[in-house]
Request: fold
Amino acid sequence: MHQSTSKKNKIIIYLILLFILSTTSGKFAITQNSYLSTDNKISVEGLSNTENFNISNELSDLFYKNILFMDKKKIHNIMNKYNAVEEYNIKRIYPSTINVKIKPTKYLARTSYNNQLLVGANGKLVNDKENTEILPYIFGEFNSKNFLTLKKNIEQSKFTFKEFKTLFFFQSNRWDILTNNDILIKLPLNSTLKSLNLAYKIVSDDSIEKKIIDLRVKNHLIIK
Reply:
């Protein structure tokens, strides 16, 4: 009789343990489902409504499977497709929200070709037809490295970038720049910063009549 009672007690204990384990497993499944839910929300701000919407859709496909794990490389590849992006910050808010804040690039110039694409501070070309900023034009087929190097030299010189209205790039990797006062500065291939500071002195000297400042030849200055 005692043995039969002991056996029944063991069965009851096993049933209780099975119930506890089943309940724990069920809660875990519900928690996981909240991360896999189609109710996950992605908020994107910083660019145009269309671009924000497109980025949100692309990120939704990435985060749909599991909001817990964010593949930084895949995220970067998505964001890198949008040339207007300068920087971005992604904040994950549990259990099911992703906030994406984008810092758009600052526009520095317009190209004279390709429907007057805008040149961003990140060196990329942006198609923003709604932008009405007055920006200098760039003539010639340049690359971002050429332009950003020139921009850096101008910033380090006594000039400001706003003092120029047109930039001309040549296949020899040399630049000519036209000031807002219609003074053309022909820069050399090298020693750009030094040449810019010399040109600034000449431009600032009202006693010198000038329309062209030619600094292309080393140690030679031609003023016309």
